[in-house]
Amino acid sequence: MLNFKDKVVYQIYPKSFYDTNGDGWGDLKGITAKLDYLKDLGIDYIWITPFFTSPQRDNGYDIADYRAVDQRFGTMADFEELTKEAKARDIGVMLDMVFNHTSTEHQWFKRAVAGEKEFQDYYKFVDGEPDSPPTNWVSKFGGNAWEYVPTIKKWYLHLFDVTQADLNWENPRVRQELKDIILFWKSKGVSGFRFDVINLISKPDSLQNDDIGDGRRFYTDGPKVHQYLKELVADTGIEEMITVGEMSSTSIDNCIKYSNPDEKELAMTFSFHHLKVDYKDGDKWSLMPYDKIAFKQLFKEWQEKMTDGNGWNALFLTNHDQPRIVSRFGDEKQYWRESAKLFAGVIHLMRGTPYVYQGEEIGMLNTHFTDINQYKDVESLNYYNILMEQGKNANQALDIINQRSRDNCRTPMQWDTSENDGFTTGKPWIEIPEYGKSITVSSQINDENSILAFYKKLIALRKQYRIISEGNISFDIAVPEQIISFQRKLEDECLYVIGNLGETETQIIVSESLTKGQLLIHNYSDDVNIMEKTLNLRPYELLAILL
Ligand code: NOJ
After folding, report:
1. Is the Cβ–Cβ distance between 341 and 361 less than 8 Å?
2. How far is the CA of 96 from the centre of ligand 1 (A)?
3. Pocket mutation for ligand 1, best pick of 98, 158, 159 (most atoms within 8 Å of C-beta)
């Protein structure tokens, strides 16, 4: 298997990236138009979230036809042009394969509910009576995870929205259909794939209620998931391509298996535990300040254990499902620039393949919408209603949605200060936040002190220094709560990365005299306050020193 240790991936949410035809939706041509910007950033791959034909109930993660471009994004010719132009700039294209479920608008599902037994076997259908769902499992978007179809007297499983029906991977015909989809896109010259919630595909043989949870323990990293992945990869010949699996509520042991090259499954995995550190009692809709100790501890565990097991992490702090990192763990105001750079440094200097989510490289913020009607995301709208039913008032519910909504990172890319921040000449599909014009690509592109310039530098350093792409990693735990400190080691070199996650200045003692080292990167524009064996770190200050 190839490795992707010195590569960086840029994630594009096409609906909000760049619109070339003025309909308020980003499109494939818009991505092609911005390839020079991406090349200049230094990234190697773009992962484009689904642009296939879809009713868009879950913004394209509900696919009705896996082989067709949804016309709102353009045409197949636009896709071919994009791939060609990307290749000409040495940028690979990664597609998002949503194989746990299809839209209920997919032909397979329509034929199933029309009574065709053959297609009923494509999904998780169970015979039953209308008032008793097969289990008490909870959908990840709220409510029971089963829906009844009266005409055929069967329930179907949907771990996500009611319009996203879970596929039956037990059926070899389903597995063959999915392999054929990969082969179809492979033949179009794509470089790799991201697999949506791929660790949920193998459901247990017998269905039972979950008396202590929402059901996830029965189907997460399920009984045959590794077998199915091995088969998918071998039969489509994608071992040498860049592949990443999105792993919901997974474990380190499973991620080692998914990404250890000897297993011939995937090149790397996304896990999310480090982003649940502000969920009170593990509940996304229950707010608490983020737990810095848990945040560091989780990175320590995942980084060190994945290294020991020869697994490989995809590194990220934000994506199209997460709030903006500066708003979430940083400081939007006084230390906006420093905190955005700090979190970028933490991610890009760790062991793994970094992912940059559109807008992160300029420090975009959460929406701060003032009305629930400004939100579009199905999960946010469902949970707003659930929170109200639970007794929250409208302000409280809105406050929670403001902090947790997936729309926080789905608003349009802020290119410049023209109308609609240069995203579209039409009416954007979702409102642009009020702060929009104050944070744009155009205001940062020529500023060497900008967040954008910092990302460029981090991406370039990974290619320049093998210690960043290849080095081992260990974390210091005997440091103050707000300090994150880890070392990368390769042969006789050592890279010290030290950051202040907090808003107060903090002094730390370091074991080596860092004064003798070379400062590779620093997120403040003036000197580092470094003495023989002590270091004074200002709010959100980060530095990396090579010894
Ligand atoms: C994970 C995707 O990232 C998310 O956006 C989507 O809603 C779910 N999977 C369901 O496909």
Report:
1. no
2. 10
3. 98
Phi, psi (rounded to 5 degrees) for 55? -70, -5
Q: Is 58 in the pocket of ligand 1 (CB under 6 A)?
A: yes
Q: Is 407 in the pocket of ligand 1 (CB under 6 A)?
A: no
Q: Mean pLDDT in each 10-residue stretch from start to end of the chain (547 residues)?
A: 91 98 98 98 98 97 98 98 98 98 98 98 97 97 97 98 98 98 98 98 96 97 98 97 98 98 98 98 96 98 98 98 98 98 98 98 98 97 97 98 98 97 98 96 98 98 98 94 97 96 93 86 88 89 96
User: 306 CA distance to ligand 1 centroid (A)?
Assistant: 24
The residue written with tokens 């994608």 in the block is 238
Between CA 94 and CA 45, with CA 190 as vertex, the angle to 5 degrees is: 40
156 lines ligand 1 (CB under 6 A): no
Ligand 1 midpoint to CA 408 (Å): 15
| CB contact set of 122 (below 8 Å; sequence gap of 6+) | 108, 109, 112, 167, 168, 171, 173, 174, 177
**8 A C-beta contact, residue 313 and residue 402:** no
Dump pLDDT digits (tens) for 263-315.
999 999 999 999 999 999 999 999 999 999 999 999 999 999 999 999 999 99
- The answer to whether the beta carbons of residues 248 and 271 sit under 8 Å apart is no
The amino acid present at 363, given as its one-letter code, is G
Beta bridge mates, 48:
12, 95
User: Does any ligand 1 atom lie closer than 6 A to the CB of residue 247?
Assistant: no
pLDDT of 515 reads 84
192 in Cβ contact with 45 (< 8 Å): yes
Cα–Cα distance measured from residue 283 to residue 368, given in angstroms and rounded to the nearest whole number? 21
Whether pTM > 0.85 for this model: the answer is: yes
Residues in the chain: 547
pLDDT of residue 530: 78
| Strand, coil or helix: 346 | helix
Catalytic annotation, residues: 196, 246
Ligand 1 atom nearest residue 321's Cα: 5
How far does residue 222's CA lie from ligand 1's centre (Å)? 18
Pocket test for ligand 1, best of 13, 48, 61 (most atoms within 8 A of CB): 61
pLDDT in tens, 417-437: 999 999 999 999 999 999 999
Retrieve residue 428's tokens.
Answer: 């954007």
Amino acid present at 188 = K
Between CA 105 and CA 113, with CA 109 as vertex, the angle to 5 degrees is 110
Distance from the alpha carbon of residue 61 to the mean position of ligand 1, in angstroms:
6
SS3 content of the chain, % helix, strand, coil (to 5): 35, 20, 45
**Burial level of 448, CB count in 10 A (0-12/13-18/19+)?**
exposed
Token duo for residue 283: 């509940």
Phi, psi of 172 (to 5 degrees): -60, -25
Q: Which residue from 529, 471, 231, 219 is spatially nearest to 352, judged by alpha carbons?
A: 471
